[in-house]
Write a structure and sequence with these properties.
alpha/beta, Dihydrodipicolinate Reductase, domain 2, globular, Rossmann fold, seven-stranded parallel sheet, 2 domains
């Protein structure tokens, strides 16, 4: 069915895992024994059909470097599970810095933080058009409000589908949804769920409690890690949208009133030696039959960036299906299943069925 031409904003750990995965899964030719994917064949498209044609970053160790080299450049620290990348005919373009760099990072080791390049930003819309990009994935740092809006507008101006993987609200804002509808350009967002991550586990356990008649009284989710995402989030001013996104993803599954004081969900701390390993500590307290107390605790340890890459691969292919079908605007079903903060929240089992119907062409969006 041809290639899916992809542009990536932010060549960090998530992009590294995604690009490695695209190449890794090329060795598989059938659905049998394919590990780690929700869909190997999605509407006729395989993971290896994705082709990166443009990339944007601001770090001096990546800007103007070949894509193959930039994927593994510092401060990237995710697990390398496929190192034999081809010589892509793509060099990383300098994007506008805007609010994509948090100043507190300057106090940390260069190997752990971003180093903004002293280069002029490219004309992003021009690069997108010349590259032939069909879909753009945004992996900007948390808190990049201005930068996210810039790239969302660039996608509109270039006629490129947009997937917003971070907790800045675009695909959950009516004003942006209307813009993508008017130009008939597919949109998926906001804030990617991991394959088996803290949010999806918290949602499932919360829904289980509701289905089994447990009244949840208190719950928390604390996360620690050592990648640039956790370093960036030490600036608590960048976390407003992140906390809203993660909290609503969980509380949307609670059918009774619960106050903000009884729910705490969000990043906790930066531990450099953890690198891309993310550790989640989760607790749910509640009452069962006869108001008898119950509590549940869970510890999850997972390589953070590959954990979201498998979901993004599906989101990219869903965007391509929409393009093939001439469908634009918010893709409701993929957003509900793949994202923490979609415009419309659904239980995960409902959203999964919606996505399957979308893939089969039984549901328009």
């Amino acid at each position: 069915m041809g290639k899916i031409k992809l542009a990536i904003v932010g060549l960090g750990n998530c992009a590294s895992a995604l690009i490695q995965g695209i190449e890794y899964y090329k060795k598989y030719t059938s659905q049998d024994k394919v590990p780690g994917l929700m869909h190997f064949n999605l509407g006729g498209y395989l993971p290896g059909d994705i082709e990166v044609v443009a990339a944007f970053d601001i770090d001096e160790r990546k800007v103007n470097k070949p894509l193959k080299e930039a994927v593994f450049a510092k401060p990237n620290c995710t697990k390398i599970f496929y190192s034999d990348l081809p010589d892509y005919p793509v060099k990383v373009s300098m994007g506008p810095v805007l609010d994509g760099f948090a100043e507190h990072m300057e106090n940390y080791s260069p190997d752990k933080r971003f180093i903004p390049a002293q280069a002029e930003p490219v004309d992003v819309v021009k690069v997108l058009k010349e590259s032939g990009a069909e879909v753009m994935v945004s992996y900007l740092p948390v808190g990049s409000e201005e930068a996210t809006r810039f790239y969302a507008q660039a996608a509109l101006d270039a006629g490129v589908a947009f997937i917003n993987c971070i907790p800045v609200f675009v695909a959950s804002k009516d004003e942006w949804i209307k813009k993508f509808e008017e130009k008939n350009i597919p949109l998926i967002g906001d804030d990617i769920k991991s394959q088996i991550g803290a949010t999806i586990i918290h949602r499932v356990l919360t829904k289980l409690c509701m289905d089994r008649g447990v009244r949840i009284t208190n719950t928390y989710q604390l996360n620690v890690g050592g990648n640039t995402d956790f370093l960036n989030m030490l600036n608590r001013e960048r976390l407003a949208s992140k906390k809203i996104s993660k909290t609503e993803a969980v509380t949307s599954q609670i059918s009774h009133e619960i106050t903000a004081d009884n729910v705490h969900i969000g990043p906790s701390d930066y531990i450099p030696w953890l690198n891309d390993n993310k550790i989640c500590f989760l607790r749910i307290e509640g009452e069962i039959f006869g108001n008898v107390p119950i509590n549940l605790e869970l510890r999850l340890s997972v390589e953070d960036s590959p954990n979201s890459a498998g979901v993004v691969i599906d989101a990219i292919r869903c965007c391509k299906l929409a393009l093939d079908r001439g469908i634009g605007g918010l893709l409701i079903s993929p957003s509900a299943y793949f994202m923490k903060h979609p415009r419309f929240q659904y239980p995960d089992e409902v959203a999964k069925n919606m996505v399957e119907e979308f893939i089969e062409g039984k549901r328009e969006r």
